[in-house]
Amino acid sequence: MEVYVKSRSGYPTVRGDCPFSHRVLLTITLKKIPHQVKLIDLKNKPAWFVDAFPKAEVPVVHFPEGRKEGPEWVSGSDTICDVLEKEYPEPSLRLAQGKEAEVGSKIFGSFVKFVTNADPGKEAELKDALLAEIKSLDAYLRQNEGDYLGGARVCSVDVALYPKVKHVCVAAEHYKGLQLRKTFSAMDAWMKAFEESVETEDTYYPDEFIVEGWGPKVGLPVKL
Protein backbone atom coordinates (compact mmCIF):
# COMPACT_ATOMS: atom_id res chain seq x y z
CA MET A 1 0.00 0.00 0.00
CA GLU A 2 1.23 3.47 -0.92
CA VAL A 3 0.33 6.47 1.21
CA TYR A 4 0.64 9.95 -0.29
CA VAL A 5 1.00 12.69 2.31
CA LYS A 6 2.14 16.30 2.54
CA SER A 7 5.83 17.12 2.55
CA ARG A 8 7.28 20.08 4.39
CA SER A 9 7.02 23.15 2.17
CA GLY A 10 10.26 23.50 0.24
CA TYR A 11 11.60 20.19 1.54
CA PRO A 12 10.20 17.46 -0.73
CA THR A 13 11.88 14.62 1.20
CA VAL A 14 10.67 15.69 4.67
CA ARG A 15 7.23 14.75 5.98
CA GLY A 16 5.04 17.79 6.63
CA ASP A 17 2.44 18.91 9.15
CA CYS A 18 -0.94 18.03 7.60
CA PRO A 19 -3.32 16.85 10.37
CA PHE A 20 -5.34 14.79 7.90
CA SER A 21 -2.24 12.97 6.62
CA HIS A 22 -1.20 12.56 10.26
CA ARG A 23 -4.49 10.85 11.06
CA VAL A 24 -4.06 8.34 8.24
CA LEU A 25 -0.46 7.57 9.21
CA LEU A 26 -1.48 7.05 12.83
CA THR A 27 -4.24 4.66 11.72
CA ILE A 28 -1.83 2.68 9.56
CA THR A 29 0.75 2.56 12.34
CA LEU A 30 -1.74 1.39 14.97
CA LYS A 31 -2.98 -1.32 12.63
CA LYS A 32 0.59 -2.29 11.66
CA ILE A 33 -0.23 -2.20 7.95
CA PRO A 34 2.77 -2.60 5.61
CA HIS A 35 3.05 0.56 3.51
CA GLN A 36 5.27 3.00 1.66
CA VAL A 37 5.05 6.73 2.29
CA LYS A 38 5.16 9.02 -0.75
CA LEU A 39 5.59 12.73 -0.12
CA ILE A 40 3.78 15.43 -2.12
CA ASP A 41 5.01 19.03 -2.10
CA LEU A 42 1.74 20.95 -2.24
CA LYS A 43 3.50 23.99 -3.71
CA ASN A 44 5.07 21.92 -6.48
CA LYS A 45 2.58 19.16 -7.18
CA PRO A 46 3.52 16.49 -9.76
CA ALA A 47 1.50 16.77 -12.94
CA TRP A 48 0.32 13.16 -12.68
CA PHE A 49 -1.04 13.85 -9.20
CA VAL A 50 -3.00 16.89 -10.35
CA ASP A 51 -4.35 14.93 -13.33
CA ALA A 52 -5.44 12.03 -11.13
CA PHE A 53 -6.84 14.23 -8.35
CA PRO A 54 -7.95 17.64 -9.65
CA LYS A 55 -8.26 19.00 -6.11
CA ALA A 56 -4.67 17.83 -5.57
CA GLU A 57 -5.27 17.27 -1.88
CA VAL A 58 -3.66 14.79 0.47
CA PRO A 59 -3.84 12.23 1.94
CA VAL A 60 -4.36 9.67 -0.80
CA VAL A 61 -3.90 5.90 -0.50
CA HIS A 62 -3.15 3.55 -3.38
CA PHE A 63 -3.72 -0.21 -3.26
CA PRO A 64 -1.48 -1.27 -6.19
CA GLU A 65 -2.64 -4.90 -6.03
CA GLY A 66 -6.28 -3.87 -5.87
CA ARG A 67 -8.92 -4.45 -3.20
CA LYS A 68 -11.64 -6.98 -2.61
CA GLU A 69 -14.07 -4.30 -3.72
CA GLY A 70 -13.82 -0.59 -4.43
CA PRO A 71 -11.28 1.58 -6.27
CA GLU A 72 -7.50 1.20 -6.03
CA TRP A 73 -7.12 4.92 -5.22
CA VAL A 74 -8.82 6.37 -2.16
CA SER A 75 -8.69 10.01 -1.07
CA GLY A 76 -9.87 11.99 1.95
CA SER A 77 -8.94 11.05 5.51
CA ASP A 78 -12.52 10.10 6.52
CA THR A 79 -12.94 7.75 3.58
CA ILE A 80 -9.42 6.34 3.86
CA CYS A 81 -9.79 5.51 7.54
CA ASP A 82 -13.17 3.87 6.93
CA VAL A 83 -11.64 1.75 4.18
CA LEU A 84 -8.66 0.78 6.36
CA GLU A 85 -11.00 -0.30 9.16
CA LYS A 86 -12.87 -2.57 6.73
CA GLU A 87 -9.78 -3.91 4.95
CA TYR A 88 -7.76 -4.36 8.14
CA PRO A 89 -10.28 -4.91 10.96
CA GLU A 90 -7.70 -5.96 13.56
CA PRO A 91 -6.76 -4.32 15.78
CA SER A 92 -10.07 -2.52 15.72
CA LEU A 93 -10.24 1.26 16.15
CA ARG A 94 -14.02 1.31 16.22
CA LEU A 95 -15.68 3.36 18.91
CA ALA A 96 -15.71 1.65 22.27
CA GLN A 97 -18.84 3.35 23.58
CA GLY A 98 -20.30 5.51 20.81
CA LYS A 99 -20.98 8.59 22.91
CA GLU A 100 -17.50 9.96 22.16
CA ALA A 101 -18.22 10.22 18.41
CA GLU A 102 -18.97 13.95 18.51
CA VAL A 103 -16.45 14.92 21.20
CA GLY A 104 -14.27 17.80 20.00
CA SER A 105 -15.82 17.81 16.53
CA LYS A 106 -16.16 21.63 16.43
CA ILE A 107 -12.72 22.48 17.81
CA PHE A 108 -10.83 22.66 14.54
CA GLY A 109 -13.44 24.76 12.76
CA SER A 110 -13.56 27.21 15.68
CA PHE A 111 -9.77 27.37 15.69
CA VAL A 112 -9.50 28.11 11.96
CA LYS A 113 -11.94 31.02 12.28
CA PHE A 114 -10.04 32.39 15.28
CA VAL A 115 -6.47 32.03 14.09
CA THR A 116 -7.18 33.44 10.62
CA ASN A 117 -9.35 36.31 11.85
CA ALA A 118 -8.25 39.78 10.72
CA ASP A 119 -11.16 41.71 12.26
CA PRO A 120 -10.33 43.04 15.78
CA GLY A 121 -14.04 43.43 16.46
CA LYS A 122 -14.56 39.67 16.19
CA GLU A 123 -11.45 38.59 18.08
CA ALA A 124 -13.01 38.17 21.54
CA GLU A 125 -16.07 36.35 20.21
CA LEU A 126 -14.00 33.90 18.17
CA LYS A 127 -11.58 33.33 21.03
CA ASP A 128 -14.44 32.57 23.42
CA ALA A 129 -15.97 30.15 20.92
CA LEU A 130 -12.71 28.21 20.63
CA LEU A 131 -12.18 28.17 24.40
CA ALA A 132 -15.72 26.87 24.92
CA GLU A 133 -15.03 23.93 22.60
CA ILE A 134 -11.70 23.16 24.29
CA LYS A 135 -13.35 23.40 27.71
CA SER A 136 -16.00 20.90 26.60
CA LEU A 137 -13.31 18.42 25.49
CA ASP A 138 -11.40 18.91 28.73
CA ALA A 139 -14.55 18.31 30.79
CA TYR A 140 -15.30 15.10 28.91
CA LEU A 141 -11.76 13.82 29.44
CA ARG A 142 -11.86 14.79 33.11
CA GLN A 143 -14.82 12.50 33.83
CA ASN A 144 -13.76 9.81 31.37
CA GLU A 145 -12.34 6.49 32.57
CA GLY A 146 -9.05 5.70 30.86
CA ASP A 147 -6.43 7.67 28.98
CA TYR A 148 -8.40 7.96 25.74
CA LEU A 149 -11.80 9.12 24.56
CA GLY A 150 -13.08 5.57 24.31
CA GLY A 151 -11.60 4.53 27.65
CA ALA A 152 -8.52 2.35 28.03
CA ARG A 153 -7.77 1.94 24.33
CA VAL A 154 -7.28 4.30 21.43
CA CYS A 155 -10.26 4.59 19.10
CA SER A 156 -10.86 6.26 15.75
CA VAL A 157 -12.08 9.49 17.38
CA ASP A 158 -8.78 9.86 19.27
CA VAL A 159 -6.87 9.32 16.05
CA ALA A 160 -8.95 11.88 14.16
CA LEU A 161 -8.92 14.50 16.91
CA TYR A 162 -5.35 14.38 18.24
CA PRO A 163 -3.61 15.80 15.12
CA LYS A 164 -6.11 18.66 14.96
CA VAL A 165 -5.75 19.51 18.66
CA LYS A 166 -1.98 19.42 18.28
CA HIS A 167 -2.24 22.05 15.54
CA VAL A 168 -4.64 24.11 17.63
CA CYS A 169 -2.37 24.14 20.68
CA VAL A 170 0.84 24.93 18.81
CA ALA A 171 -0.54 27.58 16.45
CA ALA A 172 -2.80 29.24 19.03
CA GLU A 173 0.14 29.68 21.38
CA HIS A 174 2.52 30.94 18.71
CA TYR A 175 0.16 33.32 16.91
CA LYS A 176 -2.38 34.21 19.62
CA GLY A 177 -0.52 33.68 22.89
CA LEU A 178 -2.95 31.06 24.22
CA GLN A 179 -1.30 28.37 26.33
CA LEU A 180 -4.06 25.82 26.06
CA ARG A 181 -2.19 22.79 27.36
CA LYS A 182 -1.24 24.62 30.55
CA THR A 183 -4.83 25.76 31.06
CA PHE A 184 -6.67 22.51 30.30
CA SER A 185 -4.93 19.76 32.26
CA ALA A 186 -7.16 16.83 31.27
CA MET A 187 -6.65 17.59 27.59
CA ASP A 188 -2.91 17.90 28.21
CA ALA A 189 -2.83 14.49 29.92
CA TRP A 190 -4.70 12.94 26.97
CA MET A 191 -2.19 14.46 24.54
CA LYS A 192 0.77 13.26 26.62
CA ALA A 193 -0.65 9.72 26.67
CA PHE A 194 -0.93 9.88 22.88
CA GLU A 195 2.58 11.29 22.46
CA GLU A 196 4.13 8.66 24.72
CA SER A 197 2.19 5.57 23.63
CA VAL A 198 0.89 6.13 20.10
CA GLU A 199 3.04 8.68 18.27
CA THR A 200 6.11 7.19 16.57
CA GLU A 201 9.02 8.37 14.45
CA ASP A 202 6.96 7.41 11.40
CA THR A 203 4.11 9.78 12.32
CA TYR A 204 5.76 12.60 14.28
CA TYR A 205 6.62 16.09 13.00
CA PRO A 206 7.99 18.95 15.13
CA ASP A 207 5.98 21.93 16.31
CA GLU A 208 7.90 24.36 14.12
CA PHE A 209 6.46 22.66 11.03
CA ILE A 210 2.99 23.54 12.31
CA VAL A 211 4.03 27.15 12.86
CA GLU A 212 5.41 27.27 9.32
CA GLY A 213 2.28 25.74 7.86
CA TRP A 214 -0.11 28.21 9.50
CA GLY A 215 1.97 31.33 8.82
CA PRO A 216 0.56 32.05 5.34
CA LYS A 217 -2.98 31.39 6.54
CA VAL A 218 -2.62 33.73 9.51
CA GLY A 219 -1.05 36.42 7.33
CA LEU A 220 1.80 37.05 9.75
CA PRO A 221 5.53 36.49 9.31
CA VAL A 222 6.77 33.16 10.63
CA LYS A 223 9.27 33.55 13.47
CA LEU A 224 10.88 30.28 14.51
UniProtKB/TrEMBL annotation:
The keyword Transferase applies. GO terms for biological process: ascorbate glutathione cycle. It catalyses: L-dehydroascorbate + 2 glutathione = glutathione disulfide + L-ascorbate. Keywords: Transferase. It comes from the Eukaryota. Residues 18-86 form the GST N-terminal domain. Gene3D superfamilies: 1.20.1050.10, Glutaredoxin (3.40.30.10). GO terms for molecular function: glutathione dehydrogenase (ascorbate) activity; transferase activity. Coiled coil: none annotated. Belongs to the GST superfamily. DHAR family. PANTHER family: GLUTATHIONE S-TRANSFERASE DHAR2-RELATED (PTHR44420:SF2). This is Glutathione S-transferase. It comes from Chloropicon roscoffensis.
